[in-house]
Amino acid sequence: MGAPRQQGKRAVRPFTAILIGLTALLIAAGLGLVVVGALSLFAPEPPPGTGAERLTTVEPAPEAVTPDAARPVALSIASIGFTAPIEAMSVGSDHDLFPPGFTQAFWLEDYGLPGAGSTNTVYLIGHTSSNESAVFDPLVNRAEQRSTVLVGDEIVVTTENGDVVYEVTSTERHPRTALGSLEKVWQSAPGQLVLVTCLFDAEHNVVSDNIVLFATERTALADAEL
């Protein structure tokens, strides 16, 4: 007689075991993706923009003789790590403040040049945007509806003759419709810089006010203190 047949379950072949293992892994992975997708539906929306982060330590610009007045080419604000190129535009007497581009600041060539010997106020303007893609978005804290640049901060305007350093003396909000006629904004004040931008709120809606920064050329401040 031959050997009796073994009773019970047949041995699982190696290939079949591999298929079973892969199927289990795919099912687990699919369940994982479903869980991640479900969680993402309940994830909170990103917080409203708060502008540029302020730097804790900022070295002041070195003392230097202010260069002769010349066309500005770049703008930097060390306290918020901000830099931007500058181009020229004209607004005439209507004060129509709508810059023709979104990625650069604009100098109002109808008015003063930055630097020694300037005969008028220097004006720089730029856009903010609803999606935080414009040049001056870092300058505005939407959540708090204020400027991220504070009194005492330095603004450096680089000209064709060198750097002109200004110190912020006030930050204000003014109705956009009234800005063109405000004497404080448009008075002729050699050695003064006025920077203007629009404002959006935390829900990305445009606000009817403009943010206005007033700054004074640093050597002029030093002379006034003597």
Mind explaining what this structure looks like?
The strands form two sheets. The chain has an eight-stranded mixed β-barrel. A two-stranded antiparallel sheet has the order 5-6. The chain has helices at residues 14-41, 183-186, 218-225, and strands at residues 72-77, 82-89, 105-108, 122-126, 140-141, 146-147, 154-159, 162-175, 192-200, 206-217. The protein contains three helices and ten strands; from the N terminus they run H-E-E-E-E-E-E-E-E-H-E-E-H. It starts with 13 loop residues before the first helix and ends with a helix. The protein is globular, with a radius of gyration of 30 Å. The longest helix has 28 residues, at 14-41.
Descriptive tags:
single chain; 226 residues; alpha+beta; eight-stranded mixed barrel; two-stranded antiparallel ribbon; 18% helix; 30% strand
SSE topology sketch:
Elements: H1 14-41, E1 72-77, E2 82-89, E3 105-108, E4 122-126, E5 140-141, E6 146-147, E7 154-159, E8 162-175, H2 183-186, E9 192-200, E10 206-217, H3 218-225
